[in-house]
Design a protein that fits this description.
Radius of gyration: 27 Å
Order of helices and strands: HHHH
Number of strands: 0
Strand content: under 5%
């Protein structure tokens, strides 16, 4: 029984505990963390995209308005 084997097992157990979904704090942090780091790094390098033009929905809604109903 070498002490190295015990150390490796302990390390694997520690990783398993971190990865295991038993801890509720893990999944919550994982959802909030990934989108935060990549976004700030990409935004400063590239300028923000221009605002999208308004979709042709307002005119269609106007046609469907009570004006068309009998």
């Amino acid at each position: 029984m070498c002490p190295q084997i015990l150390s490796t097992t302990t390390a694997i157990r520690a990783l398993d505990n971190l990865i295991s979904p038993d801890q509720p704090a893990r999944p919550v942090n994982t959802k909030c963390s990934p989108p935060v780091p990549p976004a700030p790094k990409i935004l400063p390098h590239y300028p923000p995209p221009p605002p999208c033009p308004p979709p042709p929905n307002p005119p269609k809604l106007t046609l469907i308005s009570p004006n068309c109903s009998p």
